[in-house]
Write a structure and sequence with these properties.
The protein contains 8 helices and 2 strands, in the order E-H-H-H-H-H-H-H-E-H. With 230 residues, the chain is mainly alpha-helical. The chain starts with 8 loop residues before the first strand and ends in a 6-residue tail after the last helix. It has helices spanning 17-41, 56-84, 99-112, 127-151, 156-165, 169-200, 205-211, 218-224, and strands at residues 9-13, 213-217.
């Protein structure tokens, strides 16, 4: 927990309704895509399936495709917020594009490595998290392109794009499956770090993604002067 001489905390409005809707739509669609994708890749075989008609594969594919469109919609919202969201949602606030943000990046790395005891009081994402989330967005785009190529290989522009990027559907399928494991590990690490931050920090990360507000030390907010509080 960071130093707080005053002992008081203030609520800072950070995440808009659009950002929170993006987060939960992205999260739930990811979970659905992972579970249905693993089934599609390696469906369980049982002896009774030879004697009873089963539409489980068709059902899983339907859920997979439906979740994919929610996934793409969520990503479109995030791109909009990167450009036109509030000050804490824009891409320049959470990536190392300024001296302040570069310092914040190294501060976060040292804090997670237990080399610093004080957590930086920052309304938006710390820059380490924000930079990694940008990388996740890039991987998500690759996931979408490979998925569209597998689903609509006969569509002209999708076929041209898929051939240019992946070369063949076999390679696109392999990359699509491999990136599934990236999202599995990302989800586990993301949940772990959110819980870790709630234990060792004071910002209220988990409640913040529901309420849109974070708790920051009053003295840090007063020193910054640019942070708007309720």
């Amino acid at each position: 927990m960071g130093a707080n001489a005053s002992g008081y905390y203030v609520r800072v409005p950070v995440w808009s309704v659009a950002l929170r809707l993006y987060h939960w739509t992205f999260a739930l669609s990811c979970i659905t895509l992972i579970l249905t994708g693993l089934y599609i890749n390696y469906p369980p075989i049982s002896t009774w399936a030879e004697f009873m008609p089963s539409f489980s594969m068709a059902t899983m594919r339907t859920w997979h495709f439906a979740a994919a469109f929610f996934f793409m919609s969520a990503l479109a919202v995030r791109f909009y917020l990167y450009l036109f969201g509030n000050r804490y949602e824009k891409i320049q606030d959470c990536t190392p594009v300024s001296v302040r943000n570069i310092k914040s990046l190294f501060h976060a790395i040292m804090f997670y490595l237990y080399m610093l005891k004080e957590h930086e009081a920052r309304p938006g994402h710390n820059v380490l998290a924000g930079t990694f989330y940008c990388f996740v967005v890039f991987i998500s785009l690759l996931m979408i392109v490979s998925g569209l190529y597998l689903m609509y290989p006969e569509t002209g522009w999708i076929q041209s794009m898929g051939n240019a990027i992946f070369g063949s559907q076999q390679m696109a399928r392999f990359i699509h499956y491999a990136m599934t494991w990236f999202f599995i590990f990302f989800t586990m690490i993301h949940v772990y770090l959110c819980i870790w931050n709630d234990i060792f920090g004071s910002e209220g990360i988990i409640s913040g993604i529901f309420s849109g507000r974070k708790m920051l030390p009053a003295d840090a907010v007063a020193k910054d002067g640019t942070i708007e509080t309720e």
